[in-house]
Amino acid sequence: QVQLVESGGGLVQPGDSLRLSCQGSGRTFSDYSMAWFRQAPGKEREFVGSINWSGSRKYYANSVSSRFTISRDNAKNTLYLEMKSLTPEDTAVYHCAAVIVAGLPMGDDEYQFWGPGTQVTVSS
Predict the structure, then answer these.
(1) Residue 76 to residue 87: CA distance in whole angstroms
(2) For residue range 21-43, what is the model confidence (pLDDT) as tens digits?
(3) Could you tell me if 23 and 4 are in contact, meaning their C-beta atoms sit under 8 angstroms apart?
(4) Between 27 and 70, residue with greater pLDDT
(5) Are 27 and 51 spatial neighbours (Cβ–Cβ below 8 Å)?
């Protein structure tokens, strides 16, 4: 199995950029399709984006597709989420998740391993 730990969250102002990282350890990182999810207070967990094992395929939620970029560096066992033009609506706890599968699942119930999350707060 793989263990995941997110980092890079914080308090930023509207319009700012932020890069989140998800460090994996344990089983071979490149075995996994990866995703980012987020959960705002009082709301259900929401799919942000996913990436296949090699990084050659990516899929994004419509709400972030023009502003967020997901990438991975398998040599460093790290998943990234580059976020631009942040708004208060992006405030949430961001989690990375992993599963061994050929596709790019969007449902949180399809992912097997999860990190504890990192808080992103967008506020002026």
Answers:
(1) 30
(2) 999 998 888 899 999 999 999 99
(3) yes
(4) 70
(5) no
CA distance 77 to 93: 21
β-strand partners of 58: 51
Write the CB contacts of 28 (distance below 8 Å, at least 6 apart in sequence).
none
For tokens 């992103």, the residue is 120
Q: Find tokens 């709400």 and name the residue.
A: 63
> CA torsion angle for 73, 52, 107, 6 (degrees, to 10)?
0
Q: 1, 26, 29, 32: which is closest to 100 by C-alpha?
A: 32
What is the number of other CB atoms lying within 10 angstroms of the CB of residue 54? 10
State the CB neighbour count (10 A cutoff) for residue 11.
Answer: 12
Distance CA 54, CA 33 (A): 9
Tens of pLDDT, residue by residue over 72-116, are: 999 999 999 999 999 999 999 999 999 998 888 889 899 999 999
